[in-house]
């Protein structure tokens, strides 16, 4: 499975988390997907870049390091974490739909 196929899967998990107003730790993502923790950030990167390039709220902000509620070091899409999380919770992600692998790949290569 490619990085972009994994990102597409993670998108769905993050959308459900947003709909339920939840944040997910890297540990939860690891348990739910079988991805090892060090590789999760790389799988989130295409989603972060897609959101930044499409002017969407930063969906990947819902993945946090631990109970501190802070996203991982690779997160660059927002400075005001609580405000951005509220924007993600308020957005109608189901209406937007899930980006397909070619779109995630295209926007990842733009490197927001």
Structure description:
This protein is mainly α and about 110 residues long. A two-stranded parallel sheet has the order 1-2. The chain has one domain (about 5-95). The mean pLDDT is about 95. The chain has helices at about 5-20, 25-35, 35-55, 80-90, 95, 100-110; strands at about 25, 65. α1 packs across α3 (about 35-55), α1 packs across α6 (about 100-110) and α3 (about 35-55) packs across α6 (about 100-110). Helix content is about 60%, strand content about 5%. The two termini are about 25 Å apart. It has six helices and two strands.
Poorly predicted tracts of residues: none
Mean pLDDT: 94
Count of structural domains: 1
Strand order, largest beta sheet? 1-2
Alpha-carbon distance between the two ends: 24 Å
Query: Percent range for helical residues?
Result: 55-70%
Radius of gyration: 13 Å
Q: What pattern of helices and strands is seen along the backbone?
A: HEHHEHHH
Quaternary state of the chains: single chain
């Amino acid at each position: 499975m490619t990085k972009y196929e994994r990102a597409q899967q993670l998108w769905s998990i993050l959308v459900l988390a947003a709909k339920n107003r939840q944040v997910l730790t890297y540990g939860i993502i690891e348990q739910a997907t079988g991805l090892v923790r060090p590789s999760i950030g790389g799988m989130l990167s295409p989603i972060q870049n897609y959101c930044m390039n499409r002017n969407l709220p930063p969906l990947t902000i819902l993945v946090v390091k631990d109970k501190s509620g802070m996203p991982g070091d690779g997160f660059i899409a927002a400075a005001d974490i609580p405000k951005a999380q509220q924007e993600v919770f308020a957005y109608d992600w189901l209406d937007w739909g899930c980006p397909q692998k070619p779109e995630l790949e295209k926007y990842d290569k733009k490197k927001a």
